[in-house]
Amino acid sequence: VQAVFRSNLSHLLELMGSGKESLIFMKKRAKRLTAQWAVAAQRLSQKLGAVQRDQKQILVHIGFLTEESGDVFSPRVLKGGPLGEMVQWADILAALYVLGHGLRITVSLKELQSNLGVPPGRGNCPLTVPLPFDLVYTDYHGLQQMKQHMGLSFKKYRCRIRVIDTFGTEPAYNHEEYATLHGYRTNWGYWNLNPKQFMTMFPHTPDNSFMGFVSEELNETEKQLVRGGKASNMAVVYGKEASIWKLQGKEKFLGILNKYMEIHGTVYYESQRPPEVPAFVKNHGLLPQPEFQQLLRKAKLFIGFGFPYEGPAPLEAIANGCVFLQSRFSPPHSSLNHEFFRGKPTSREVFSQHPYAENFIGKPHVWTVDYNNSDEFEAAIKAIMKTQVDPYLPYEYTCEGMLERIHAYIQHQDFCAAPGPAPPGTRALQSPFVLAPNATHLEWAQNASVAPGAWPPAHSLRAWLAAAGRACTDACLDHGLICEPSFFPFLNSQDAFQKLQVPCDSTESEMNHLYPAFAQPGRECFLQKEPLLFSCAGSSTKYHRLCPCRDFRKGQVALCRDCL
Ligand code: U2F
After folding, report:
1. Pocket of ligand 1 contains residue 289 by CB under 6 Å
2. Which residue has the least CA distance to atom 13 on ligand 1?
3. Which atom in ligand 1 lies closest to the alpha carbon of residue 81?
4. Smallest CA separation from ligand 1 atom 19, residue
5. Is 0.80 surpassed by the pTM of this model?
6. Is 316's C-beta closer than 6 angstroms to any atom of ligand 1?
């Protein structure tokens, strides 16, 4: 059956059920965005032309909303608790539905079991019950529940699972044995999935797939209205929960801001003003999402206090024509030094409250400054008040961008297929590259055969030997490219080192998430023994890593130019 784009979301709203505040929030959002999804579907349909799309049967099991996992989020929806996850799930559901796939949605263990065809209480039975879904989207909580209740089927069908994982899972944490041996064990990791099965909220490391969410896009008339209606001295503070306002030292920079601007907040409160919120702040209380957007349309500045990390609100602010001002973290926050990230399966270092805003958007929309430096802070405020900025939304966060990306994943990602090229040592791998004319990197040879069906297509590969201590994520960005982990197998050979003229005195094959790599001191080259450990993330001053990079579409970093 072919998938047909849908523009009416009312059946989806029925499928989403009701009761919980979280579901109500998500349904309102899906409903409000219907028109934007419909236009996006129309545009994508035109862009794809006659491409055949199979209709998939998809189960969406939202584990964190189940009572069995404690559902700590639903009761906080109206109290300033996290909404980012619900924004993302609402958008994933809408996108899958608009793309025309068959959907089932579960938010309890009972519903999960009945959809999986597992008789209750028979979770550990040795039978493999056929899975009636081509794809399952879930989260870490749901993954655990599926493992417990699917018996042997879990192993057989886990390649069909996609895990929505806000902050990402790096390969070193995903590989059970390696994580255990090398201190990468956490509450969440060690599932031995293909790291691309984890789907993140922002493009953190390309080892995972970037799923994202959407922000409402303004049309030309709305943009005009926003341009005309901005109050150049109005600031809104990022932080809907009073605890965010506890930040030490805030008096100093808020005092400076207060000299220039009228400060607004949307902090949840019960009966009286939360004591953390200074009296000069005009607090509106937690606003419904559409009213929050309206407030952003009038404001000039959206200012972050350092928490929450990496949420949707800064993108919404920028899309509504605000400048986002945030603090630089020095030293960077990570699972090593910050409670929030502790136990998360990533070593990623976070250099500001919203690294995506800093690195993918930047000035004039985003200013990242040291809040402890009053001069720098004050200068930024003055400069921001003078600059005129237009509403801006990166393509990958528009409805069309998200549809395009999910379409490409559904069409091309197959983790159930037989593994790619055999690991080194098991067969002589004739490398399909040549040294580029300027001798700095490898390129795909013109006459090399291309693995049919390989996605992303291998001819977009370009490979560098990174500087010592540089991760492949950064090394590729240095060249205006993005690291592509699925290309590692092509590079993992003596021949690749040779073509790059790396002086290997010896070559060893071992399990290490930094390999393939070259160690200068002993002139040793190392190949990767375990395909699951290929990793864009990770660095050590000991190694020059061999890095596979590819191009990407403007505003759509998940997809290479020939990836659609
Ligand atoms: C992030 O979760 P948060 O919910 O704290 O993220 P925010 O950026 O604050 O935004 C979530 C939504 O809240 C909405 C706003 C955003 O789409 O439109 N909102 C609102 O409806 N009313 C208001 O008055 C103010 C905002 C992140 F997304 C999570 O993944 C993390 O777990 C969490 C902690 O770092 O931060």
Report:
1. yes
2. 83
3. 4
4. 289
5. yes
6. yes
Q: Which atom of ligand 1 is nearest to the CA of 85?
A: 30
Structure tokens at 526: 């190392």
Is residue 275 scored above 50 in pLDDT?
yes
Q: Is 164 in the pocket of ligand 1 (CB under 6 A)?
A: no
Q: Is the CB of 557 under 6 A from ligand 1?
A: no
Question: What's the pLDDT score for residue 428?
Answer: 41
123 pLDDT above the threshold of 80: no
Residue 217 Cβ contacting ligand 1 at under 6 Å: no
Top pLDDT among 427 and 541 is at: 541
Q: What is the pLDDT of residue 423?
A: 45
- Calpha distance 80→213 (Å, rounded): 20
Buried b (16+ CB within 10 A) or exposed e, 3-31: bebbeebeebbeebeeebbbbbbbbebbe
Query: Which position has the token pair 């109290």?
Result: 79
| CB neighbourhood size of 383 (10 A) | 13
Q: Where are the alpha helices (DSSP H) in 418-531?
A: 472-478, 488-491, 494-499
* Longest CA–CA separation in the chain, Å: 72
Digit-coded pLDDT (tens) for 6-55: 999 999 999 999 889 999 999 999 999 999 999 999 999 999 998 999 99
Report which of 116, 128, 133, 121 is spatially closest to residue 153, judged by C-alpha positions: 128
User: Looking at ligand 1, which atom is closest to the CA of residue 312?
Assistant: 8
pLDDT at 427: 42
What is the amino acid identity at position 438? Answer: N
Q: Decide whether any atom of ligand 1 lies within 6 Å of the 85 Cβ.
A: yes
CB of 74 within 6 A of ligand 1: the answer is no
298-353 pLDDT, tens digit each: 999 999 999 999 999 999 999 999 999 999 999 999 999 999 999 999 999 999 99
Distance CA 413, CA 416 (A): 9
Residues of 504-519 as b/e, b for ≥16 C-beta within 10 angstroms?
beebebeebbbbbbbb
Residue 558 near residue 403 (C-beta atoms within 8 A): no
Helix (H) or strand (E) holding 35: helix 34-48
Q: List pLDDT tens digits, range 509-527.
A: 999 999 999 999 999 999 9
- Regarding the beta carbon of 320 and ligand 1, being less than 6 Å apart is answered no
